[in-house]
Amino acid sequence: MRSLPEADPGLPDIRSPFRYLLWNARMQLPSLLGGIAFATAWWVVQALVPAVLGKGIDALTAKDGGELLTWSAILLGLGLAQAYTGIMRHRLAVYNWLAAAYRTVQVTARQAARLGATLPKRLSTGEVVSVGNSDIAHIGSSMDILLRGTGSIVAIVTVTVILISTSLPLGLMVLFGVPVMAVAVGPLLRPLHRRQKAQRDLTGELSTRSADIVAGLRVLRGIGGEQVFAEHYREESQRVRHAGVAVSRVESLLEGAQIILPGLLVAAVTGVGASFAVGGQITPGELVSFYTYAVFLIGPMRTLTEAADKLTKGHVAARRVVRILSIEPEVSGGDGTSEGGVLRDSYSGVTLQPGTLTAVAAGTPEDAIAIADRLGRYTDGDVTFGSADLATLPVEEVRSRILVADNGARLFTGRLRDELDVRGGASDGEIRQALHAACAEDIVEALPEGLDAQVAEAGREFSGGQQQRLRLARALLADPEVLILVEPTSAVDAHSEARIADRLAKARAGRTTLVCTTSPLVLDRTDHVIYVEDGRAHAEGTHRELLGSSPAYAATVTRGED
Q1: Would I find Nucleotide-binding among this entry's keywords (predicted)?
Q2: Range of 31's domain?
Q3: The pLDDT value given to residue 215
Q4: Predicted TM-score of the model (pTM)
Q5: How far, CA to CA in Å, does 31 sit from each of 25, 87, 123?
Q6: How far is 169 from 163, CA to CA, in rounded Å?
C-alpha cells in the first residue's frame, strides 16, 4: 500500500486553470505515462480480439483444425493480456486520481493556513467546502480519464486501420460514423455543465447557510428564530433538489444518446456487412469481426464523450482552485529582525512593557479587538516591536513570537493531549501546569481516558466555558514571547474566573502578556491597566487607581453598578 500524499506538493502553476492541470500532470508524470501505456495496451488488446475471433470462425468454416487451434491459443493469450493490463490500468488510474486530488487538498489547505483570517472575508464557507467536496474529485477525474481517453483514441485508430484493410466501404463507414456520433452528443455537454455549475453554486450557498445556522443555533433558540431559519433552509434545499433534477434530465439524455447513436452505427455496419457477405465480398468470419467491432467501438466512443465531460469539469474545478490559490493575505511581512522588547501600537497608544501583565479595558469590545489584531499583525497598523516596525518582520516569525488567543479559536478533532500541545514536546507535568493555570483540571479528570481522550469536531462535547478554559490552557502551553488574550474568562463562573486571574500572573511570570477584558476580578490582578475609549488610550494605572481617577473607566468595568 502506497502512502498518499507522498511529499511536499511544491508550488502550483496558478497562471490559468489549464496550467494548474498541466502542473498536476507534470507532478505525477511517471505514473501518468505508465497508466496511459497500460490503458492503451488494454484497449488495443480488446481491439484485436474481433479480428482473431473472425479468423477462428473462418478456420472453423474451412474445417482446418490446426488453424483453429492456433487462433484459439492467440485468443487465450489476448484474454490473459487483457486481464493483466486491465488490472494495472485500474491500479494506476486510482493512484493518479488520488494523487491529483490529495495534491489539490495539500495546496489549498496550505493556502488556507497562509491566508488565515483573510480567507473567510474573501470566500464564503460554502465555496470553500465545495472545493473540498466536489472540485478535488473533478480534478482527480481529469487525470484519471487521460489514461482511458488516450487509449480509446489509439483503439479507434487501430480498429479503423483493420476495417479499411479488410473492406474499404465498411471501414470508411466506421471511420466517419464515429466522429459524427461524437459531435452529435456535443451539444448536450454545454447545458449539462451550465446546470451542474448552477447546482454547485446553490449547494455552496446551502452549505454556508447550514454552517451559519449551526454556529448560531443557541442564539436562534434563545430568540425563537430557529423555526424561521429552518424554513429558509428548507426552501434553499428544495432549490438545490430542483437543480439536481435539472442536471439529471440532461445526463439521462446524454446517456440515452450514447446508447442510441452507436446502436444505429452497429445496425448500419451489420446490415451492409451482411449484404457484402452474401455477395462474397467478405467472409463469414470477417462479417462477425465487423459486427463485433461496431459493438466494441461503443466503449471507446463513450470514453471519448466521458473524457470531454470530465476534462471540462476538471477545468472548471481548477478555475475555482486557482481562485483560492491566487488570493493574497491582507498582511504581509518583510525580512527584518527584532530582538524584542516594548510592543507599542502607535494609533491607540497601548504599550506593553516586557515581562509585565497588562490589561486593556475598552469602552466598546470592538476597540480592544482592533488593538489585539494590530499587535498580532492580523491587520495593518503602526506597531513597533522593540526598535523594529512589526510590518517589516516575517509573518511566520510574528506568529511564533506573538500569539493572539480569542474566543473565535476552535478545538480540533484528535487526542486532547495533541490539541493542547500544538507545538509538541511538552511533558505531562507541563500540560498539567497549563491546565491548572486555566482552571481546567476538572475537565480532563472527568474524561475516562484523560489527556488521551478524543476531541469531537469543534470540541462540541464541551460546554462554552470548558472550551474557553481549554483554549486558555493551549495558549499558555504554547508559551509565546508575547501572549494577547481577548476576553479569556467571559464564559466562566466568577469563582473560576478569580482562580484563573490569580494563576495567570504566575503562569506568565517574566513574559509579556496582554489581557483584553473588563472583568474587575482580572483587572485587579494585573500589573498595569490601560483604559481605551474611541480606540485610544485615555487613562493608565492600576485597577484601583483608575476606579478613583477615571469615572468612565469605573462605569465600564462596574457596568454602571455602585
Answers
A1: no
A2: 17-325
A3: 61
A4: 0.67
A5: 9, 14, 34
A6: 9
